[in-house]
Design goal:
two-stranded antiparallel ribbon, 60% helix, mainly alpha
Length: 96
């Protein structure tokens, strides 16, 4: 891999195209601390930037269903189904 291309395009080493998606606050954890998409994905042991890239490459419908499953599996947030669906819709819109 040619790292110079990456460093040239992303001087701090991170792809900033997904900042809005990753930095979105999606709720408060059970202990009251804010949870962002990035923190949720990291706490699930997933690479947040890879997840963002993968979701953005999917159709909106597939990305939506995939992200909803991820959110359901994250036990530190409790959302009603409607609230979770609204959050997922907004997050997917930020990627597409």
């Amino acid at each position: 891999m040619d790292w110079s291309i990456i460093m040239e395009n992303y001087p701090n080493g991170l792809d900033t195209r997904y900042d809005r998606f990753l930095q979105t606050r999606i709720g408060a954890g059970l202990n009251g601390t804010p949870v962002t998409t990035l923190s949720m994905l990291a706490r699930l042991g997933l690479d947040p930037w890879q997840v963002a890239r993968d979701l953005s490459a999917m159709s909106k419908e597939t990305a939506w269903a995939t992200l909803e499953k991820v959110m359901i599996s994250f036990a530190d947030l409790t959302h009603s189904a409607k609230n979770r669906q609204n959050i997922v819709t907004g997050l997917i819109a930020s990627l597409h």
